[in-house]
Amino acid sequence: MKRLIALSLAGAVGAICATAHADNSAPSDAGSIYLAPMIQYSLQGNDPEIKDNFGYDAAIGVNLPHSFALEGNFSRGDFDIKGTDGTRRLDAYTIDVIKKFFPTDIMEKVYINPYVLAGGGELNDRTDYPGYGHGTYHTFTGEAGIGILTGLGRQDGSTRVQLRTEAKYRMEFASADTFGVKDPSGVVFGVGVQMNFGAPDDRAPKIVTHETVREVVREVQVQPPPPPPPPPLPPPPKGDIRLQGVTFAKDSAELVPQAEGVLDTTIASLKPYPNLVIEVRGFADSTGSQAYNLNLTQHRAETVMHYMQSHGLSNQMSAKGFGKDNPIADNATREGRLANRRVELHITGGDQGGGS
User: Fold this and answer.
1) How far apart are CA 336 and CA 322, in angstroms?
2) CA gap 166, 146 in Å, rounded
3) CB–CB of 100/164 below 8 Å?
4) What's the rounded mean pLDDT across residues 334-338?
5) Per-residue 3-state assignment (H helix, E strand, C coil) for 32-52
């Protein structure tokens, strides 16, 4: 029987290793930590002298690349010995390796993630008979099992809470000939919550501008040459101007700080053409309802319009939100959704340019 259980443990470890390189390109929550308190129920099928009972488990872990996790566990269960007043207390200290099957971006969509686990450590087996004292036996233990993490609420923030349910087989490596020690191996069911701290950053990449400082050397001349004529203005823009890099806080119409540099550059390029009539258009990705996205993109378009007007652009302007219509990229990918969350300037008239 123990040989079969040992083969099962090896099989669980093999399943973990076989999926190690299943998806290296998906977003990862590597580096985030979690706490997982659980209630357990142990079936002591290998030892008919002790009764099944509840216990508890507490785990602290860290998420690793490629959907792995490493955690330390402490669990305790108290069991009555049938036909006596004696009790057994089993304290297990284990280190477990976990492999989750779904990458982080799938977890954010379906809010469910199955996993397998395998590990081992030390088991303290304490027997206590009233009036006869107690004895504690220390031995090794191994365990392997499966489980499911189910998201409770949103799963894209810096703190995420998940329902954790699992079933594992725990085996005690104790000699059956040892006096007073019985085999408490059996199936352990657990249910609790897993609280994660730290998450992938789904914001737009920062735009870094490099400014070059030029040293200007002025020469003093008795008769300076006349200045060259100013270069002619380029033709006024037409059609749509996409504001690459103008992004907002998630689910908000508040501009991120780096977007202001892009808007300032755009304002400077449009000031020579005060007669252009401009419509600010806001777009969203496919996440969320159409009504919600229409309202959000309208506010974002108005934010950009008010910023440009307050920073010296005197053109006739209006703002309009289009929601998730008119995507320019695939909404099935993270990069495509980021590209679709955009603001554009549409030139609707007055293309003669120039002004006093």
Assistant:
1) 17
2) 6
3) no
4) 85
5) CEEEEEEEEEEECCCCCCECC
pLDDT at 219: 57
In degrees and rounded to multiples of 5, residue 113 shows phi and psi of -150, 105
Radius of gyration of the chain measured on its C-alpha atoms: 32
pTM above 0.70, yes or no: no
With H, G, I as helix, E, B as strand and everything else as coil, classify residue 154.
coil
The H-assigned helical ranges of the chain are 2-18, 104-110, 259-270, 290-310, 334-340
Cβ contacts of 300-303, under 8 Å, gap ≥ 24: 300/248, 300/253, 300/343, 301/343, 302/253, 303/248, 303/253, 303/254, 303/255
For residues 132 and 116, give the distance between their C-alpha atoms in angstroms, rounded to a whole number: 42
Q: Where are the beta strands (DSSP E) in the chain?
A: 33-43, 53-64, 68-80, 87-100, 112-129, 133-152, 159-172, 186-197, 240-242, 277-282, 316-321, 343-349
